[in-house]
Specification:
The protein folds into two domains: 184 residues, 3-Layer(aba) Sandwich (Rossmann fold), CATH 3.40.50.300; 104 residues, Helicase, Ruva Protein, domain 3 (Orthogonal Bundle), CATH 1.10.8.80. The protein has 13 helices and eleven strands. β6 and β7 form a beta hairpin.
Length: 317
């Protein structure tokens, strides 16, 4: 089929190219950040400190027309620090709800697994329902609303595992590793140039909210053949019967896998999705939706290892 080449597609790729110039050695992370934006889904990024997780999300915010806010999650954070609280009007003695950081278009939840359960529950409602409840009132969130969260490995001291319900609300869970030697040398050069020229180069023309909405419609129009749909369903069903898993992926995982495969195709300039598109995003879409058995954990088998086996055993059309 004829490749898709239009102005919007070119503008999105211009943003990706600029991000790659600012974040060295993390091409997969950058594409997943853009994919989450275009698929209207939340993103969880996991990796050791110092791997540019926060920087990547900050730089993404510069390529979008919209409000951005960062919250540093800590053990003493309160739900009202995220959602907002009532304040008294000194003039008439009445109370008014003051909206919190969650009402921005793009919310960076930095080190989200350092916050206690009450704060995580408040964030979960915003992610799941796109609204905030306070007392008897409900306040809707903006139409463009994305949570980009970072977390440190759960083995680190002072971290709280995210509940399964909240994990399932993330469209993608990206794991970030250390860069290779060549990329690390580029990082050195970039750091030196930033010392000499603290003001970073400006991004391309920011994507408007109308641009993002148009890209989402274009991705929804990407054709998925029945055979590819069958492959998506087969992969998800395989996780539900795997003896190494206590729980497999839910239908929400099926929907996410379909949506992300369409996004891969659109970003690659195609108007149809292939089994390769599905396989390319399956680990990032499914890893956080799987719970391994105690036996698997004792043997050192994690969700990534299970997914590797699933992709090898489920035949692609």
């Amino acid at each position: 089929m004829e490749a898709v080449h239009d102005l919007l597609h070119d503008r999105v790729h211009a943003a990706i190219a600029w991000l790659e110039s600012r974040i060295v050695g993390q091409q997969t992370l950058i594409r997943r950040l853009v994919m989450a934006l275009l698929c209207d889904g939340h993103l969880l990024v996991e990796g050791a400190p110092g791997l540019a997780k926060t920087r990547a999300i900050r730089e993404l915010a510069r390529t979008i027309e919209g409000s951005f806010h960062r919250i540093q999650f800590t053990p003493d954070l309160l739900p009202s620090d995220v959602t907002g609280t009532e304040v008294i009007n000194t003039d008439d003695g009445t109370f008014t709800f003051r909206k919190g950081p969650v009402f921005h278009n793009l919310l960076l939840a930095d080190e989200v697994n350092r916050a206690p359960a009450k704060v995580q529950a408040a964030l979960l409602e915003a992610m799941a329902e796109r609204q905030v409840s306070y007392g008897r009132e409900t306040f809707p969130l903006p139409d463009l609303f994305l949570v980009m969260a970072t977390q440190n490995p759960i083995e680190q001291e002072g971290t709280y595992p995210l509940p399964e319900a909240q994990l399932d609300r993330f469209l993608l869970h990206v794991t970030v590793g250390y860069p290779d030697a060549a990329s690390e040398r580029e990082i050195l050069h970039l750091a030196r140039s930033e010392q000499l020229q603290p003001e970073p180069p400006p991004p391309p023309t920011p994507l408007s909210q109308q641009d993002i909405a148009a890209a989402r419609r274009a991705i929804a129009d990407v054709f998925v053949a029945p055979a590819v749909e069958g492959y998506i369903v087969a992969l998800v069903e395989a996780t539900r019967v795997d003896p190494l898993l206590e729980y497999g992926a839910s239908p929400r995982g099926t929907i996410a896998l379909d949506r992300c495969a369409r996004a891969v195709a659109w970003l690659d300039g195609r108007d149809f999705a292939t089994p390769g598109d599905v396989a390319a995003v399956a680990p990032d879409v499914l890893r956080h939706r799987l719970i391994t058995t105690f036996d698997a954990q004792a043997r050192g088998i994690d969700a990534d290892a299970v997914l590797t086996g699933t992709l090898e055993t489920v035949p692609a059309p």
